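Hi P.,

Sorry for the delay on this. The queue was packed all week, but I finally got your sequence through. Input first:
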Amino acid sequence: MNTQPIVEQIPALRRYARALTGDAWAADDLVQDTLERACSKWRLWVAGSDLRAWLFTVMHNLFANQVRRATRQAQSGSVNIDEVAHELVAPVADLGIAMDLQRCLLRLPMDQREVLLLVSLEDMSYAEVAKITGVPIGTVMSRLSRARGRLQALLDEPVRSAASPASVAPVSTLRRLK
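Then the structure:
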């Protein structure tokens, strides 16, 4: 098996994983899992087909499975707030500082974020994105449009908030439930 074509895709996989997860460590883990899965399922790749699209499909499916698993675990069990208190650090609230692009991307729904990143960051066609995500091209275009609109609104949000402080919603606080 010639690994060079796969190695050439690693930077793009890392970019996409980083944008999906929002965390460098989680992104590296996702890329590692993707490459392991690709190597173990190599016989499923059709020679001559788009290797990049296949690898992104593998990553998409792994990420979706991780999100589903995390959701199930969150629903099935409770977390003691005292055990995770060190992880619950509130961000410094300064309305004068604009929210960065990564935060805005992470606030998009996962399906919209995936499509936006694949089309914009990875420069894939709608057809390629539809194949990777397993949805029709029309759905890709719809998700992309909604993602762009929502991203623009999120990026403009600090400007509107700074312009009218009375419109700022109060920040909700974490409460201990017994």
